[in-house]
Every structure is written in structure tokens, then in C-alpha cells.
Amino acid sequence: MTTPSWMEALALKSASIPFRRKLVIVWAVIFGVMGVVFALARFDTDWMRRNFLFIATGLRTTVFIAVAAIILAIVLALLGALGRLSKNPIAFGLTGFYTSFFRGTPLIVQMFLIYFALPQMGRAGPDWLGDLLILDAVPAGILALGLNYGAYMTEIFRAGIQSVSGGQTEAAGAIGMNYAQTMRRVVLPQAIRVIIPPTGNEFIAMMKDTALVSFLGATASQLEVFRKAQLLGRADNRNLEAFIVSALLYWGLTTVFTYFQGKLERRMGTGYTREGQPVRKAAAHG
Amino acid sequence: MAEAVVRIEGLRKTFVDLEVIRGVDLDVHKAEVVVICGRSGSGKSTLLRCVNFLEEPTAGTIEVAGMKLGPGLPTRTRRDQIRALRMHAGMVFQDFQLFPHMTAIGNVMEGPVTVKKMEKEEARSQAMRYLEQVGLADKAEQHPIRLSGGQKQRVAIARALAMEPDVILFDEPTSALDPELTGEVLAVMKSLSTDFHKTMMVVTHEMAFAREVADRVIFFHNGVILEEGPPDEIFAAPQFDETKRFFQAVL
User: Fold this and answer.
1) CA end-to-end span of chain B, whole Å?
2) ipTM for the complex?
């Protein structure tokens, strides 16, 4: 049985085309099909163009939430890791509770607890406490994201600290360093190489999870991308266009950061010195 | 006899249910070089690590430069006492354990600057003198990864010296080195004794070094000092079969 010659021709033709060019064709087809589908769904590109900037300005709040929350998460993860590695039962127990609770419950539930449930607790106490526990949407979102990601990143920090050999701690102890000096001067500067790449991944994941803050009903001045898209899409009955814009914005944001993350990871992988001299060059001397 | 820099009395150390050190009394005097040898697993490294409390003794006392410590709970006071003692007992490890993120001179300065709160400039010039002493002044700005094993160990010796300890503990300082690199490290160690009169406790299998530099050789066996004496005597006429067999194997 002979196969149709056009298939053979296509197979032969295909073999001569570089893989990258094929990839470009595949992506082009995907976007082409999507374009057709959107056109059939009467996708309003005009509306999109008019409102893109309004939604895009939400990136400021989105990035602000993510940056503030990752800073909080890094602090918590460091304390959490030191606690998990501690022989002190209070430190070990506290951090054990922290990681177990915040990894074992949904992020959205934690957000609701902080935003909606804390004020109720505050009412039971003195006035000043009640005022303290009523948080705006953005601070509440930052707190929840920071606590949640800090719990996950505790594991990253713990592994990073444990990647530094016990001999280093002994050497630091042998010249009379105390625990804090050993951590600050010897262990953490080495652990950071192991910690930074996965922390970058967590940051990228967190940027997407900032969308959950929209459920807390942010005030007008602090609208992040997804909230803006929701409000605008509902008002003009243009949900498809609005959510596509927000999706594209998150996609763009994570793509940019993934690119820098990749660069950083390669750099951390080769360098072993604080000044970032590449090891490959140095190893030739050893 | 000169004063004892290190005084070990009734030392015992048990790991879980294995008694590794079973009653050791030992005085090390000022400017004395004591070489501790013995089969692997005899407890000689543990003995050395007990002197600066990298291992917690189970029983007995350790006295370094007049500071006497026994077993105890890890309270804040006790941790402070252990740190104070360690500043008088420098240590050189088998696997160097230089800080890889610091330059050679950074490694040497680290103790004086961070622990002794010495001014950076003063610590730097002092560190430079110690690097010169171990013959590595030209490698001051290199990171450990660019140094050979012998050079790393010499930087580690300079790092220990920089704390100006009363005794330096060497835990098999040449065991991790290629044979052609042991000489440079042993030469530095010899000069510490002959030129600078440092007090040293050395766990090693380098019997030529022991013969040349040691004031006293201790043969450690099954957690006790089986035999000790000046190198010439102990090498020439060991009293016990275990000692004889060990020296036959390593000499």
C-alpha cells in the first residue's frame, strides 16, 4: 500500500525546516485560531484599546502588593527556618504551628480571616485593639500573602541553611563566634546562593496570587489589575475583553520576571564568590 | 616544668552507648608540641575536639589558659564560657573549612574583626603578617576556591593564629592533602614551634613530623592514653604490643 505522496512530501519538507521555525509556525497558528474564535465572539478590540491603560495602571498596586508581601515572606521564612532548625522547643513549636497552619489552609481563607474575621475579634477587646485589627484590603492582602508564602518559603530557607556544611559552623565556633555571628557572617552568605533562585519562583507565583486581593474589595485608589478588570468588564458588559486584558498583563509581568529570574539563576549557579566571579574561570587555578 | 596551658582531668565521652574516651588525664605545657597518634576509631580526634568543646565531654574537666569547664547544661552563661575558652584554643581542621565566600585575608581577619571587634585596618595588617608567616601574602586577595589544598590549610593555620590562641589544635591537618602538598603544611607547623614557640596538640599519622617536632608522642588506644613519651623513646622502645604494631605499620 502506498501512502499519498503529499504526506511524504510534507514529511520530507518538514525534515528540512529548523525546529525553531516550526515552533514559530505553531505559535502563529495558535494565535491565528484564537483570533478567529475571538472575532466570531465579536471581540471588541476598540474597547480593549480604549481601556487597556486604565487596567494596566493597576499593575502599580499589583507589583506593590507582591513586593511588600515577598519582603514580609522573606523575613518570616528566615525566622521560620531558624525556628525549624532550633533545638529550643518554643521556637520549634511556634514555627511548626506557623508552617502547618499556613500551608494547610487555602490562601483565600487566610485572606478572609484577616480581612473579615479579625475585626470581629477586635470588637471583643479594647478600642485600640479593634482599630488595629481593622485592615484595609491591600494591607490585609499583603499580610495574608506574606504569611502564606513565608510558610512555604520556610522550607526553602531551611534547605538553604542546611546546604552549608556543619563544618562551617564548627569553624566559626572554633574562632569564638556566637550563633548570630555564625549565621550572619558564615552560614547565610553561603545559603543565599541556594535560597535566591527558588525565592524568585515564589515571587513570580505570588504576583499571580495578588489577584485574590480583589475579593477583599479594594478602595478606588488601590485597585489592582484584576479588580479593575472586574469592575470595568461588569460596567460595560465586556467581561471577555476585560479579563483577556488582565490575563495578558499578568502574563507579560511573569514573562518579564521569569526572564530575569533565569538570568539570576544562571549567575548564582556559576558564581561562588560574593563578588560574583565565575567559578569556571577560577576552577582552572585549583 | 612550665605551666600547663591545657589540663585535661578525668575526661570521658560517650556517644549514645559507645564510650569513646574512657578516662584521660593530660597536661600540655607552654610551648610544648604533643602529637597524638593511634588507629582510626581510637578516639584521638574526639579527644582533641573535647578540648575546645566541639564535643561536649560526658565527664571530667578541661582547663585552657586558666579557664576550667566541665560538662553542663547549654545555658547562656555556659555558652559564653565555651566561647571565651575557644578564643584561647585555635583549631585547624582536616578539611580546612575555610569560609568560601571570603578571600584568604578575609578568612584570617574574620575572627579578630567579628569576635574581638578589632578595627578593620588593624586586623588587615595583622592578618597580612600571619599570611606572610605561612608564606601566602601574595594570595591574600584570592578566594579559597583558587587555592591548592596545601595553601588552603596554610590559610586555615593563619586564621587560627590570628586569634592569638594559647594552644592550637590540629585535627589530622594533612590527611586530606595530596602527598606532595603535605610538606608545605608540615613545614609551617614546624616553624610555629621552632620559631614562634607555639603550644600545639597535633592528631596526625605523620610520624616523621612527630620525630622531628614533637616534645611528646601519645599513643591513644581504645579511648585511653596507652603510652606516652619523647618521640625517640617511644619509637625506639614501645612498651605495648599495640603500640609496637601501630608503629611498625606507620613508621
Assistant:
1) 30
2) 0.93
Tell me whether residues B52 and A282 touch, CB distance under 8 A: no
Nearest C-alpha in A relative to B93: A171
Looking up cell 581577619 gives B109
Report the b/e string of A176-190 with b at 16+ CB within 10 A. bbbeebbbebbbbbb
Give the confidence band of B1 by pLDDT, cuts at 50, 70, 90. low
User: pLDDT tens across A153-211, in order?
Assistant: 999 999 999 999 999 999 999 999 999 999 999 999 999 989 998 999 999 999 999 99
Q: Are B216 and B228 in contact (CB under 8 A)?
A: yes
User: Among candidates A110, A94, A35, A58, which has minimal Cα distance to A225?
Assistant: A58
Cell of A280: 569556571
| B83/A176 CB distance under 8 A | yes
Q: Where are the domains of chain A?
A: 57-269
For chain B, what's the residue count? 251
Taking residue A240's Cβ as centre, other Cβ atoms within 10 Å add up to: 16
Burial class from Cβ neighbours inside 10 Å (0-12, 13-18, 19+) for residue A259 reads exposed
pLDDT tens per residue across span B129-155: 999 999 999 999 999 999 999 999 999
Mutate to test the interface with A, among B108, B143, B169 (most CBs of A within 10 A): B143
Mutate to test the interface with A, among B55, B108, B146 (most CBs of A within 10 A): B146
Residue numbers in B near A178 (CB within 8 A) = 79, 83
Cα A220 to Cα A61: distance, rounded to the nearest angstrom: 11
Query: What pLDDT is attached to residue A261?
Result: 86
Q: Which CATH number fits domain A57-269: 1.20.1250.20, 1.10.10.10, 3.40.50.1820, 1.10.3720.10?
A: 1.10.3720.10
Q: How far is CA B8 from the centre of its chain?
A: 15
Q: What distance in Å separates the CA atoms of residue B22 and residue B15, rounded to the nearest whole number?
A: 12
Contact assessment for residue B142 and residue B135, using Cβ atoms and an 8 Å cutoff: no
Cell of A79: 525566622
Length of chain A: 286
Backbone angles phi, psi at B61, to 5 degrees: -130, 155
Which residues of chain A neighbour B157 with C-beta distances below 8 Å? none
How do residues A196-238 score in pLDDT, each as one tens digit?
Answer: 989 999 999 999 999 999 888 767 667 889 999 998 998 988 9
Look up the pTM and report it: 0.82
Distances (CA, A) of A83 to A78, A151, A156, B48: 9, 12, 13, 31
Chain centre distance of CA B56? 17
